[in-house]
Design brief:
With about 160 residues, the protein is of the alpha+beta class. The protein has 6 helices and 3 strands, in the order H-E-H-H-H-E-E-H-H. It has helices at about 15-30, 40-55, 60-70, 75-85, 120-135, 140-160, and strands at about 35, 95-100, 110-115. Helix 1 crosses helix 2 and helix 3 (about 60-70) packs across helix 4 (about 75-85). The longest helix is centred in the C-terminal third of the chain and has 22 residues, at about 140-160.
């Protein structure tokens, strides 16, 4: 029975699993999105989100704690300098897992895991939605009823000028 065994071992020993997650976390931080299996993406999400939360407060202690997980100076620098300022006001949910189908060779279910604030296409779509929402205004029916009789008068006046 597997009662209270929440961690996914990913078919690996503990040392191999830690190295795998550390390498994947470094790749995610440096490239902002990676493609992997769904199980690994879910495990990576729970691995990297606490590190991003720690990076919000730039202290020597937090840098050392994050480095103990990642073991890559460039990834730690990228996390604290680039990613942390962008997610400073976000209360969590820094990554997104998108299912992208099945792998050709072994039919493993694949996923794209990305940092939410670094997806330019999604950010552009959200900005355009906000702009479109601001342009449209809601008018009451009473104003439309009052404006409707005036419109034919204006058209008639325009026709008289044309003649």
């Amino acid at each position: 029975m597997r009662h209270n065994k929440a961690i996914n071992h990913l078919g690996r020993q503990a040392g191999h699993r830690k190295a795998l997650l550390a390498n994947m976390a470094c790749s995610l931080i440096q490239h902002k999105r990676i493609t992997t299996t769904v199980a690994k993406a879910k495990a990576l999400k729970s691995y990297v989100e606490p590190l991003i939360t720690k990076s919000k407060e730039d202290t020597t202690h937090n840098r050392r704690v994050v480095f103990s997980y990642l073991k890559d100076k460039e990834a730690v620098t990228e996390l604290f300098r680039t990613i942390a300022p962008k997610v400073a006001d976000r209360p969590g949910g820094y990554t997104r897992v998108l299912h992208i189908g099945f792998r050709q060779g072994d039919a493993a279910e694949m996923a794209l895991i990305e940092l939410v604030d670094f997806n330019e296409a999604a950010l552009a779509a959200a900005d355009s939605k906000k702009a479109a929402a601001k342009k449209t205004t809601r008018r009451s029916r009473a104003k439309k009823a009052e404006a409707a009789p005036e419109a034919p008068k204006a058209e008639a006046a325009a026709e008289e000028k044309a003649e």
